[in-house]
Amino acid sequence: MKKKLLSLAAAVSVGMVANLAGAAELTAVSFGGAYGAAQQKHMIDPYMEKTGNKVLFENYSGGVAELKAQVESGNVLWDVVDMEVIDLERACSEGLLEVFPQDQLPPGDDGTPAAEDFSKEALANECGVGNIVWTVLYAYNHDTIQGGEPKSMIDFFDTKTFPGKRALRKRPQVNLEWALLADGVPKDQIYDMLETEEGQARAFAKLDTIKDDIVWFDSWSQAPQLLNDGGAVMVQSANGRFFAAITQENKPFEMVWDGHVFDLDVWAVVKGAKNKETAIDFVKFATGSKPLSGMPEVAYAPTRKSSAAYIDASVLPKLPSAHLDEGLKASSLFWADYGESLSEKFNEWLLK
Amino acid sequence: MSNPELTPDEIKQADHNRRRSKLLATLFVIPLLLFIFVTFVAPIGTMLYRSFYHPTVYELIPNTLDALDDWSEDGGELPPNPTLNTFAVELKSLFEERLSGKLAEEINRALPGSSSLIKSTARQVSRADTAELEISGAALLFDTNSKWQQIELWQAIKKAGSVFTADYYLTALDLERDPSGEIVQRGTQIYLDLYWKSLKIAFYITLLTALIGFPLAWYLANAPTRVANTLMIFVLLPFWTSLLVRTTSWIALLQTNGVVNSTLQSLHIISEPLEMMYTQFATVIAMTHILLPFMILPLYSVMKGIDPSYFRAALSLGAKPIPAFIRIYLPMTVPGFSAGALLVFIISIGYYITPALVGGTEGQMISNLIAFHMQSSNNWELAAALGSLLLLLITLLYWLYDRLVGISNLKLG
Amino acid sequence: MVQFPRYFTIWQKLGLSGVKLTAWLVLLFLMAPILVIIPLSFNAEPYFTFTEGMLAFEPEAYSLKWYQEILADDKWLLAIKNSFYIGIMATIIATVLGTTAAIGLTRADMPFQRMIMALLLSPMIVPVIITAAGMFFFYSQLDIAGSYIGVILAHAALGTPFVVITVNAALAGFDYSLVRASLGMGAKPVYTFFKVIMPLIRPGVISGALFAFVTSFDEVIVVLFLAGPEQRTIPRQMFSGLREEINPTILAVATLLVILSGLLLFTMEYLRARSEKMRSATV
C-alpha cells in the first residue's frame, strides 16, 4: 500500500514537472492593465496562433531593478520586456539587454523598409524597438472633484482651490518634472535645472507643499482604481489607462493634458535570455504594422507610419501625438545619468 | 562514573553503549542539520558576507585600483599620469564590453553625479586607439571633461574599489565617512528612525494583542469545556487562514470606499470617509489581528493550568476581588504573557507582507526597506547590511526567548 | 458560564460581565474580517465593497462570475497547480527530515541538544525577508533560483521547524524501553520504527506535515525573491493582484482558501482528539 502510494506520488510529481517545465517557451513581460490586455489581444495571441509558440505573459511595474537583479545574479527569468525609454537607455548601457538586430526588422505592410517606416526615436537605441508613444498625465473624476475643473499643472499643486488627495507613482521620474513645471520653470529648462543641486532642491520643495496630500502607488494599473473609489481626486497615470476607463467602463474621468510627459515604450530582449532567438522573433512580429495598429485602442500611438492604414482616423485626436505641444518629452539621457542618485534622494525625502 | 560495584569490563561496556547511543542519536539529527545548513544557514551566511565584501568595482578596473594603491588620497595631488592612462585603457575595454554603465553606477554611489561623466567619457575614449591611450590617456580624460582633474573623483573611485568595506554598515546606521576619514552623521537620517519605528510598531502590536487577548483567554479558560472548545475554533480558524487572505480582508474593510467607511457613513456617524488605508494605523490593526492567536494560545494554556481555588481562597480570606486579581491571579499568568509577547514581538518586527500591502509609506517597517533595496534600488550590499543588523536584533530576542520560555516549550495550535 | 459568587457586589458583577462582553467583542474582531470577504466575493460589480443591491438582497447584485474567472484564467490555474505541487513536495522533504531529527533530539544523550534545537528551529524565527534575500544570492550561485527545486528546498527548510516541534511534543511521553524491547526481541530497526515508534507519533507527524504544508502554501516572500513566472503560487498571484489591480477574483480565491483552512483546522482538531485519547490509553 505504502509503496504504491509512494510510486504514485513519484509518478505524479515527475509528470507535473515535465508538464510544467514544457509549458512556456517564451516569457514576455509588460505593464498589465488595459495596455497589457491590448498587447495580449494584438501581439501575444496572434503570435501564439501564427507560430504555435507558447508565450507566458507577465506583468511588472516598470523600472530596471528586476531586470538588473536577474542579469547580475545570473538568474534570468524573462526573455523579452516592454520598457520605457528612460529605463532603456540605462539598461542598455549597463549591459542588461541584448543588442537588437534592427536590420532584420521586416518592412511595413505597405512595403516601406523598416528603417524608414519606424519613427526616428523608435530605433534610436540599439537595444530596443519602439512600440508606442504614450504619455503620463493626470486626470480627475467629475464625481469627486471639488472647487471647479483643474486645467493645468499649477492646479494639480493647488490644494487650496482643489482640495483632496493626489495620487502619484512612487518614483522621482515625471514627479520632479511636474514640480518644476508647476513652480513656473519653462519646459525647455526643466532638465538643465534638474541637473543642479538647486534645481533638485526646488523640485522637492515644491513637492513638499502637497506632500501630506499625496497617495503613492506602485503600479500604473492601480491608478484608475484610486480615481474611481475616491482614494484620490487627481491621479497620475498613463493616458491609455484613463482612456480605457472612460471609453470601456464609462467612468466620469477627465484627462488634463497640460504638462504631460511623453515617451516611447520599447520591446527589448533581456541579456542572457534563455530563449533569445524566439524573443527576437517575437519582437519582429509584435512591432509589425498590423499588431501595432491595435495600440490606439488604448490611446497609444504606434511607431510605424504604415500602421496608419489600419487605424480609424477618429481616434487620432485622442492620441498623445495630437497633444505634443502641451507636453514635455521625457529625457532618457537625463534619467540614465541621474535616475539612481535621484531615486535615492527621493526615497530619503519620502521617509522624512 | 566510578561505581565501585561495577567491574571495569561493565564500565567499558556501559561507556560503549552510551557512545553508541550518542552516535545513533547524532546520526538521526545529521540529515536535517546538513539540509538546514545548505538550504538555510549557508544562504544567510552569503548575505552576511555580502554586507562587507564588494568586489564588483575591483573586478571592473583591477589595474587602475592596483596602481591607485600607491597613491595617497590625502596628499592633495592627482594620481600620476601612468595610473590615469591605465584607467583610460580599462574604461575603453569596459565600454566595448558594455560594462561602463555598471562602473558609472558604482562610482555614482560614492560620488553622486559622476554617472554621466563616466558614461560620456567612456564613449570618448572608446574612439581612441589602445596604444595611444597607454601613452596619453590622461590628457584625453582631461580634454573630455575637466572634472577628471578633481581629486574627489579619484578618492571616490579608490573608495568604491575597496573589496572589503564597512561602509554599508555605516550607511545602515545613518553614518558616513567624511573626506578625512572621520565617521560622521549622514545628512539625512533614515535607517535608525526606521529601526526605531519598527520597534515601536512591534511594541504597539504586542501591547494590543496582550490587552485584547487577555480577556478572551481568561474567558476561554474559565468557560465550561464545551463552550470553550467551540469558541476556540474562532481563534484557530483565523490562525489557519492564509495571511494573504487576512490582509485582503483588511483592505476590503479599511479602504476609502470600504466596508468600515460605508457602514459608518450609512449610519451617519461620519460624513467624509476616514483615511485608514496606507497608514501606520492600518499596519498596526491588521497585524494585531493576524498575530492575536499567538498571544491567546499561550495565555490560554497557562490560565487553564491555574487552580481557581487560589483566587477563591484569597477572596474568602477577605481580599477585595480586584486587588486579589492583581496580586494573586495576574502574577500566575506571567509565563503565558512572556511567551506570547516575545513571540508576537519577534514575528512582528521582521514583518513584510502586511505593511507592504496596507501600510503605504507611513506604515513601512525595516523589512520593507530591505525588500526595497533588494528589488528596486538594487543596492544589495546595503540590503545585506540592514538585514544583518535586523538578524542581530532577532538573535538577541530569540536568545531571550530561549532563556525565559525555552524554545522546546514552543507549542503550536 | 462563570457563576457570580453571592458575595459579589453589583459593581463586581458588572465588571465581570464587562470582561465577558470584551471577550465576545474580541471574538468578533477575530472572525468578522474573515467572514466579511465571503459575501463580497459574490459581488456582481468589480468592487471590494457592499453595493446597495447586495444589502437589499437583490439576486442580480450577486454573481458567481469571479469564481468563473478563476477557472478561465491560465495564471490562476497554474498558480493553484504550483501551490499544491510545491507544497506537497516541500512537505514530504520536511516531514521525513524533521521526524528523523526529532527522534534523535529527544534522546537524552544527544550532545549539544539545546544548541542544535535552537539552530533547527531558527528558520521559523529569522524574518523571512532575510532568509529570502540570502537564498536569492546563494541559490542563484547554485543555479537553482527560478526553478521548482529552489522553491521546494526553500519551503522545505521553512517547514522543518514545525515538524520538529510537533513530533518532539508527540515523543515527550514516549518510552524508549519499547524500542529496546523490540530490538531486543530481534526486530529490525526499520520494522521497529514503523511498528513501534510510528503508531505512537503518527498524530504528531501528521500535524507537523500539515503545518509544513500550510507554511509552504501560505508563503509569499521566498516565492517573490526566488521563483520565476513559471513557479507562481496562489499567494504570489494574490500579492501582485493586491498591489496592482484589485478585483474580486482575489476575494473569490480568498473565500476558497478560508474553506480550505476550515478543513485543515477540522483535520487538526480530529488528530488532537485522537492523540489525547491515545495518550490516555497508553499512560
TrEMBL record, chain A:
Keywords tagged on the record: Signal
Organism taxonomic ancestry: Bacteria, Pseudomonadati, Pseudomonadota, Gammaproteobacteria, Oceanospirillales
Signal peptide: 1-23
SUPFAM superfamilies per UniProt: Periplasmic binding protein-like II
Organism encoding this protein: Marinobacterium zhoushanense
InterPro entries: SBP
Alphabetical list of CDD domains matching this protein: PBP2_polyamine_RpCGA009
Record protein name field: Spermidine/putrescine ABC transporter substrate-binding protein
Pfam families attached to this UniProt entry: SBP_bac_8 (PF13416)
UniProtKB/TrEMBL annotation, chain B:
Sequence intervals crossing the membrane: 23-49, 201-221, 233-253, 281-303, 324-353, 382-401
The keyword Transmembrane helix belongs to this UniProt entry's keyword annotation: yes
UniProt topology in membrane: Multi-pass membrane protein
Superkingdom per UniProt: Bacteria
CDD domains linked: TM_PBP2
InterPro entries membership: MetI-like, MetI-like_sf
Chief location category: membrane
Span of domain ABC transmembrane type-1: 195-401
UniProt key word Transport: yes
Compartments reported by the entry: Cell membrane
Keywords of the record: Cell membrane, Membrane, Transmembrane, Transmembrane helix, Transport
Family: Belongs to the binding-protein-dependent transport system permease family. CysTW subfamily.
Protein name from the UniProt record: Permease
Automatic annotation (TrEMBL), chain C:
Pfam families xref list: BPD_transp_1
Gene3D superfamilies named in the record: MetI-like
Transmembrane segments annotated in the record for this chain: 21-42, 84-105, 117-139, 145-171, 205-228, 248-271
InterPro entries for this protein: MetI-like, MetI-like_sf
Subcellular location: Cell inner membrane; Cell membrane
Protein's UniProt keywords contain Transport: yes
Keyword tags: Cell inner membrane, Cell membrane, Membrane, Transmembrane, Transmembrane helix, Transport
Residue span(s) of domain ABC transmembrane type-1: 80-268
Record's bilayer topology term: Multi-pass membrane protein
Family: Belongs to the binding-protein-dependent transport system permease family.
Name of the molecule in the record: ABC transporter permease
